[in-house]
Backbone:
């Protein structure tokens, strides 16, 4: 689905770079600036520094003079504003609206098919969204914030909307841990248990004449733990040290 983030009359170059970074992190790259304060904002040093590697998003970004020029291909438009407007579109929390928009709520059944393109509007840092721009939108998204202090940095607001929209579309899978290892095989566990049994006898913890159920219980413990080969090596090292210490003590 076409997704576009539109910044209107942005006054701080750093926020453009921060917005580009926010989009790339969430897998988006369609950024349009409507009449920004700086004509060369996409090449300013502060912009590039704040983009922190999202240069491809900046390279693809467009600068236009009017909002109309930014809306080609967009069939559903969302404003972002803290304060509801009289006679304006409904003010909704992003996640609730996205769920309905993509088919997760009863309202979506009445609205019909999914939109072909979704645009998110963000107003100027100095005066926010203009009423006339909000009135053009299908919904006004209000990020739930602290009622006593709801002011969000522009790039931070872009990041939050981008995150919620990515979650609604289908989030990226979590990367596996780099040190994740497969469990050791049964033969390795058995060998470690034999080694450990010898060490427990050597330190007089296990009486070989009356072992009871100690080793079967330890066997079950390690089966539940699914130790890796590295962990088996550590345990065998412990057993080896126990045997060495017991041998010294008996000399």
Residues:
């Amino acid at each position: 689905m076409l997704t576009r983030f539109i910044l209107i009359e942005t006054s701080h170059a750093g926020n453009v770079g921060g917005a580009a970074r926010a989009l790339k992190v969430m897998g988006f790259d369609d950024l349009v600036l409507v009449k920004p304060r700086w004509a060369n904002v996409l090449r300013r040093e502060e912009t590039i520094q704040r983009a922190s590697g999202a240069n491809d998003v900046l390279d693809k970004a467009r600068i236009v003079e009017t909002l109309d020029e930014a809306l080609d291909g967009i069939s559903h438009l969302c404003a972002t504003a803290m304060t509801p407007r009289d006679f304006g579109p409904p003010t909704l929390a992003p996640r609730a609206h996205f769920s309905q928009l993509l088919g997760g709520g009863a309202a979506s059944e009445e609205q019909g098919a999914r939109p072909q393109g979704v645009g998110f509007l963000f107003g100027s840092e100095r005066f926010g969204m203009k009423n006339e721009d909000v009135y053009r939108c299908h919904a006004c998204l209000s990020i739930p914030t602290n009622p006593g202090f709801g002011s969000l940095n522009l790039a931070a607001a872009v990041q939050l909307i981008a995150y919620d929209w990515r979650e609604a579309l289908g989030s990226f899978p979590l990367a596996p841990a780099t040190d994740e290892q497969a469990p050791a095989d049964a033969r390795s566990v058995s060998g470690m248990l034999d080694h450990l049994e010898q060490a427990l006898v050597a330190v007089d913890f296990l009486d070989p004449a009356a072992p009871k159920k100690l080793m079967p219980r330890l066997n079950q413990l390690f089966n539940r733990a699914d130790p890796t080969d590295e962990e088996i090596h550590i345990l065998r090292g412990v057993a080896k040290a126990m045997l060495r210490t017991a041998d010294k003590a008996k000399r």
